[in-house]
Amino acid sequence: MSPDSMALGSVRSAAELNEQIRALWLRSGGSLSAQERAEYELLLVEWAAAIRGRVIEAA
In whole angstroms, what is the distance from residue 11 CA to residue 40 CA? Predict the structure, then answer.
């Protein structure tokens, strides 16, 4: 899924996604498994899309 299509479908805020990213790192003890790494990458892409959406709205 492309970041642009995720931005359209994302309902989670950047703050919520940031909280989930932090929780993932805490649960993992700072070392991500392959599955956790995949989850992290998806969360990061969605977070970046949410940030982009806020910047566009502000402009």
Answer: 17
Among 3, 4, 1, 9, which Cα is nearest to 45's? 3
pTM of the full predicted structure?
Answer: 0.73
In this model, does residue 24 exceed pLDDT 50? yes
Q: What is the pLDDT averaged over residues 9-23?
A: 89
Say if residues 6 and 14 touch (Cβ distance below 8 Å).
no
Of the candidates 56, 53, 52, 51, the residue with the CA atom closest to the CA atom of residue 15 = 51
Distance CA 4, CA 34 (A): 25
- Rounded Cα gap, residues 55 and 40, in angstroms: 22
CA distance 41 to 53: 18
